[in-house]
Amino acid sequence: MRADHPAPRKDTRRHRVSYIFGLSTNASLAAQIEVKADEVRTRRVIGNLDVVRDYAETLYAARSWSRSRRVVARIEATRRGSWMLGSHPSLLVNSDWSRDSIGGYLGTDDTRYLDQPRQSRTNWTASMGGTLAMGRDQLTLAVAHLGLHQDRTERDALPTDTPVAY
Q1: What are 24-31's contacts with CB under 8 Å, separation 24+?
Q2: Which of 11, 59, 120, 122 allows an S-S link to 112, with CB 3.0 to 4.6 Å?
Q3: Residue pLDDT, tens place only, 22-70
Q4: Residue-wise over 129-152: b if at least 16 C-beta within 10 A, else e?
Q5: Phi, psi torsion values for 43, nearest 5 degrees
Q6: Longest C-alpha distance within the chain, in Å?
Q7: Which run of H or of E encompasses 20?
Q8: What is the 3-state secondary structure (H, E, C) of 80-127?
């Protein structure tokens, strides 16, 4: 029986229907199979393949169902890809003094995946430094801090469903 079949769901047990095909994807169901879906996408990218298909099994209950049921989802990854928005603002400030100098840098790398929001991430960098003339010598000091993330598609990445901060 297809999920869009007009027969009410409660009739499925009475008529001994064992499987329902064509259940439409929603945010809750997609979240339950995201780890397996990401594995499929990663296999496609690493293998440089046109398409990779696999299946994931989970328990799921639509609001109108009286209990959870076993759902098998077909997962397909193709070269079509995902819509991504990226912004990379930065600010660099330097002094214009004759002998000594000071400078600072702030930058972000914000990436948003529209159909996979859990994969979105924001990396950032902040640094500051300067030089001080001391006779014929110079003293240079600098400090920096980076907030970066490892994507699941990177080699030897941890198996997780979100980017890992490091």
Answers
A1: 25/73, 28/60, 29/58, 29/60, 29/71, 29/73, 31/118
A2: 120
A3: 666 777 888 888 888 888 888 888 888 888 889 888 888 878 778 887 7
A4: ebbeeeeeeeeeeeeeeeeebeeb
A5: -60, -40
A6: 94
A7: none
A8: CCCCEEEECCEEEEECCCCCCEEEEEEEEEEEEECCCHHHCEEEEEEE
Whole-model pTM? Answer: 0.50
CA 46 to chain centre: 17
| Alpha-carbon distance values, 125 to 62, 88, 146 (Å) | 44, 11, 4
- Closest by CA to 29, choosing from 57, 67, 66, is 57
Backbone φ and ψ for 151, nearest 5 degrees, come out as -80, 155
The answer to whether the beta carbons of residues 70 and 57 sit under 8 Å apart is yes
The residue behind tokens 């994969």 is 119
β-sheet bridge partners, residue 95: none
Strand partners, 72: 57
What confidence score (pLDDT) does residue 145 get?
95
For 78-101, the pLDDT digits (tens) are: 877 667 788 888 999 999 888 899
For residues 161 and 118, is the Cβ–Cβ distance under 8 A? yes
Which residues are within 8 A (CB) of 129 and not within 5 positions of it... i.e. 6 or more apart? 102, 103, 104, 140, 141, 142, 143
